[in-house]
Design a protein that fits this description.
Strands 1, 2, 3, 4, 5, 6, 7, 8, 9 and 10 form a ten-stranded mixed β-sheet that branches. It contains six helices and ten strands. It has one domain: 3-Layer(aba) Sandwich (VC0467-like), CATH 3.40.1740.10. The radius of gyration is 20 Å and the shape is globular.
Length: about 210
Amino acid sequence: MRVFRRYTFLMLRALAACLFLALSAAAFAQSQDEAVLLIAHPAFRDLEYRQTVLIAAPVPSGGHVGVILNRPTRRSLGSLFPDHEPSKKVAEPVYYGGPFSRGALVALVKADHAPGAGSVLLMKNLYLAFRANTIDEVIENTPNEARYFVGYVGWRPGELRTEIDRGLWSVHNADVGTIFRKDTEGLWEELLQSTRRIRAAAPRAEPAG
């Protein structure tokens, strides 16, 4: 009987894990037209993504693009561009956005219209700007209506869905308040706890009578 109970417990735990992954995949499928938040699984040991929270959104090519939200650096924009006076107006530090083109600057921009060429609409009133002259205009006109990153993250068509199906990421709805949260320390832990609450609240199979 004890062996049977342990087997039942393990089966229920496996079913709960599968259900949680299915919920994450369903949430991702429902959100294909706009940005989502990705929370790295605790077992994700890749140093680039360990304990990270990302924003990711689809692009016309069929892939996805995004940035890491909780990796602030110790550098200011003014220190990176000391000869560019408008950069000194940016109050927040520059963030590490990801391993793609890590020498390039990209910007998450809050705006009700595209800030310029080379911008990707992530969700309503939020763009990811890649082109240098567009980012310059943002810095010069609305420097603190954006967050600046070195590097970004990209996925080929189908690649992100595969990673979610493997359990590397859990998926949350994106909101501007979380995306532009000033203190990102503890953000991963908080969102991870939220995913665990969602998992705990998922319907469980009843043991056979």
